[in-house]
Amino acid sequence: MLRDLLDISMIQSTIRMATPVLLAAMGAMVTSAAGIINISLEGTMLLSAFFAVVGSYFFSSVWMGLLIGVGTGMLVALLFGVFSLRFRAHIILMGIAINAFANAFTIYMLRSMFKVAGAFSDPRIVGFDQVHIPIIKDIPVLGPIVSGYAPIVYVAWLLVIVMHIFLYRTPAGVHLRAIGENEEAAESLGINVERVKLLAVLLSGLFASLAGVYLSLGHLTMFTENMSANRGFVGLAANIFGRGTPIGGALASLIFGFADALAMRLQGTGGIPSQLVLMFPSVLTIGILLMVAIKLARDVQRTKLRNVEKALSE
Amino acid sequence: MKSRRKEFNWRPLLSLLASLVIALVIGGIFMLASGHNPLHVYVLMFKGGFVGASNIMNSLQRATPLIFTSLAVLIGFRTGTFNMGVEGQLLLGAVAAAWAGFTFKGLPAWIHLPLSILTAMAAGALWALVPAVLKFKCRVNEIITTIMGNSIATFFTAYLANYPLRENPMAAKTPRVLTTARLPRLVTYSQVNWGLFIAVFCALLFWYLFRRTTFGYRMRMVGDNALFAEYVGINPTRVAFGGMLLSGALAGLAGGVEVLGVHYRFFDPFVVGLGFNGILIGWLGKGSPIGALLAALFYGGMQNGSLMVDMTTDVPRQLSDTVLAIVVFFMAAEGLFDFFKALRRRSKTLKTTKGEVTTSA
User: Fold this and answer.
1) Which of A106, A126, A305, B136 has the lowest tally of Cβ within 10 angstroms?
2) At A114, which CATH number?
3) From its phi and psi, is residue B310 left (phi > 0), alpha (psi between -120 and 50) or beta?
4) Whole-angstrom distance, CA of residue B142 vs CA of residue A52
């Protein structure tokens, strides 16, 4: 049973499913590092997915799709950032409004622009070509696992390293983390808090929009209603599970990607009703959040205990 | 008390109106882009929502579940928790009401109907119990857990409608609830039912509770300042925990009324978006149950109007949801109006200083 599930195509689909979650997790990471709770990843992703299809359809070019998809996401992020930072908008409510808007507006546009309900696919939508890495693609086992995905997949996984360097090795990253840890202290050191926060929001918009573009032009070339399917929130969970680090977030995304891939595979086997199988990734997400919380509580207690011991021994 | 009543706070109402105008203008731009006349559409929408007995009745029917869900969200806001899981709690309430409605046979209506309603409330509260325990016992943030809870509830209720509770092989529907479990309709030409009165009663009840009782005062205090509440001897965790369960019960009630009053059965896929719209409308109420009631009634009209527009033109009915989201977006930006005020003041002072310079020169 288990051997049947762990074949190469399973690994491939894990990587495919993990990619949008990973991008969302990076978006969640960069904003939460600056002390911002960014719920809007979900809606940003959905809007970008839709407008990527629009761009690709009207210009018959995947790159125009990418450009318009990412442009949309950045615009949403800019609005989110300016409204929440400058106009003191309630940040969670702003996220809720963006998500609700994305959901309603994409269905509205789907129906008014393309005259379809539910899903839109058309031969004129150009998707990404698969990247076949020379030499590596011919190695057995490793070849098919590493080679043959859409370019965004490689961008996403490279981003993990880039973000690691950015957060821990560059001044901007250090400023970002400083703000997240203590905003007043960071401000008194002369860091322009608002500007850095806006930068973080824009970066998260970029990542979320890449995730959206990947959803609609990466593996499948189509748009379906509510295509993001809570991946923005799973990204938030992956970031929590990864303790706010890029590498941790990447590993967490792989686990969520595997859960999705597993659900997809089991759905086809017919043994268990598909609705029950589809519950599994969400149950897992809650389970993992619970695990992290318990571990955190235990850590806090341990430090407290250590402090008491130290105080007693002195 | 009296002086407070005299100084009525116009600001929220003004910002609501301004946001509504902005949202309608943006919606109008979308319609222009797809080649429709926005004024024509808005007139149709207004008529479809608020003109004529059958339109008004249908609007009230659409408003009914939104009153419950917006109250559910509001209670969360009041006690400092974000119940984003209203959608899922509503689904479980709906399926539970359907189950109770067709399972218990031979009961008189005055037992069967309340029993079915209570079952729905219990199911909603039970589903809210999970994120509540996770939040207050294990410190897991409720936003992600309630969102995940929604998708679990969606799939789980879909499973129930497709397998154990399925009536016939052709469609994923439960059996119809017995007549003893149905909420009576108000008129023959609309599905509006006694649920509306329950909803209005709930809004008034919570208004009274928040205004006049220690129970409501406690809730308000916990939401406003949990530390202070604790200082004066209130257990904020317990109050917020209770608030979450109450919120879930109201969401379940919304689902129950939807089944017992409108559809008489649960089916897959069930009505979508009542919970999410409740979150937005609950916010429009600005923390007041009466505000939420009015916002829900208004939005029920907008939604019904939007549906009528959809039926007569090819403008999709998601127009109302889109406009609602934009309204909330601008409403949430509390600093926006201050910002423009400051801008105007600055340009004014700039002008006067400039004027001074020129006259002195």
Assistant:
1) A305
2) 1.10.3470
3) alpha
4) 32
